[in-house]
Description:
The chain is an alpha/beta fold and 301 residues long. 44% of the residues lie in helices and 22% in strands. The protein folds into three domains: 5-72, Arc Repressor Mutant, subunit A (Orthogonal Bundle); 89-166 and 272-298, 3-Layer(aba) Sandwich (D-Maltodextrin-Binding Protein, domain 2), CATH 3.40.190; 169-269, D-Maltodextrin-Binding Protein, domain 2 (3-Layer(aba) Sandwich), CATH 3.40.190.290.
Amino acid sequence: MEVEPRHIRHLAAIGAHGTFVSAAKALGISQPTLSLSIQRLEDILKTTLVDRGRNGAVLTEPGRILAQRSDEVDKTIAAVLNEIELLSQGIKGTLRVGGTPLSTHGIIPATVAHILGQTKDVTIEIVEAIDEDLLDLLAGGQLDIVISAAALAAPSDAFDFTPLFEAKTVLAMRKGNPLANHSSLSLARLQDEMWAMPPAGGTFRKQVEALYTTNGLEFPKRIIQTASIASLLRIVRMSDAISVLSKQLIQDELHYGTLECVEISHALAPRVFGILTRQDRVQSNLAKLFCEVAIQQAKSL
């Protein structure tokens, strides 16, 4: 006779409730059935797992060790059953996902990690690019899914858009930058500062340029341009260059104190990030799962 998962759950219930009667009620079984289950478990392991007395039932040291594994056993069984279910649904193959830096540094890896915790029979390719390039790749079939804020630039008759989260924009700078002493800064005050920016042509860069134009100001001329978000963040951390970035993108840097942020008095409207897919393409089961998980992950952002 072998130990069964239900035996361990029964033992854990006794440890949690303190009596066989209360544990049996919580489990939805009779007290004699619970007693027989524990007796069988003790016979299999050849050790006493529960001390029975007038004051209730108390787990012995071996009983406590075994009961502590109850959640792990349930999670393992659930994971195996879920993996089998995914295989039966055809959750396998290759998925190509594109995103802008905010999504490739946040929601996309979180979604991929969650999926890999359920099934290993997949290959997921991730591409980071600006919004316009991502839309071209999606339209051309080189990508299956895009997560970005490119909804305004995407033709509504060609793409479906599912909103996920809003990204608030702030002015980022190194810790100790004198500008960090301000609670907010105007565009005019920042006009002559050194900026680190994405290349011209991207949706986000266009929004910043439009913000200066609509306020009757000339766009800053002292700009370091880079398409690499890693390089941009490093430049800001190591110099007095400033940048306009989504607060979610730099949350780790803010947490560890390597960057600081200040509100901009003429702030950009929050950008809505979401899932973009082609209307004329039937999504694979893996793509559908990715979208479902991304929607759940977005709730924690």
